[in-house]
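Problem statement: downstream parser choked on a complex file, so we are re-checking the raw output for the FE2/S2 (inorganic) cluster run. The parser issue turned out to be on our end (a line-ending mismatch), but while we're here, posting the original submission so the record is complete.
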Amino acid sequence: MSEEPRFTLDGRTVPFQDGQTIMAAALAAGIYIPHLCFNPEFTPHGSCRVCLVKVNGRMQASCTTPAAAGQVVQSEIDEVREIRRGLLQMLFVEGNHVCPACEKSGACQLQAVAYYVGMLAPHYTHFYPRRPVDASHPDALIDFNRCILCELCVRASREVDGKNVFAVQGRGIKAHLVVNTPSGKLGATDFSLSDKAAQVCPTGTILSKHSGYEIPIGQRLYDRKPINVVGDVAALAVSKGGRRHD
Ligand code: FES
């Protein structure tokens, strides 16, 4: 019987199966690699690049790079950490992320990953984009200021909910999340808080209207333990209504 193929990740041996990515194999082995646009339930998107690792000396996105036998993968090294920190710093200045006032604070994957990579200040000049808040839906609110264009809600709505409520329009700096209706308003769709799309946002972009601050900031998921210990899967396994903040 042939042995399972393996690669090394920061010196640890990681077994994998044919077709698995480095990210998937690492997660299966219980090793955390920071990520934002990746969710094990969806096809990898490879857009945020936060999951960057060094593979045989070259920087690659671990969520889209297939695992191969004998690969030498480096994740927790200064060179990689520095790039990840820069990416997070750019994400924070591109949008308007006001963590102390955000309902998602402490349960926000973006915030938790920023802490994990050692980002304590934005570093770059803020863009302060003018983005709307859509409160047209009876149960949900979209604050476009917090969107990082991971497209998880786009994929979830299309692939799981079968509704295709969201899309990304524009390119480069002009890329932005839109609601797929002539008015562009969430209230004109059949979006529901029980949709998968309501449960996968790694930031506080999509929120429930009918609850807030039920768990005090300071006692939430990532307030208690860092994301490399909790993992994002726990955060994304949200309760009905997309409001898991425990
Ligand atoms: Fe891999 Fe976003 S998590 S590119």
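For whoever reads this later: The chain has seven helices and ten strands.
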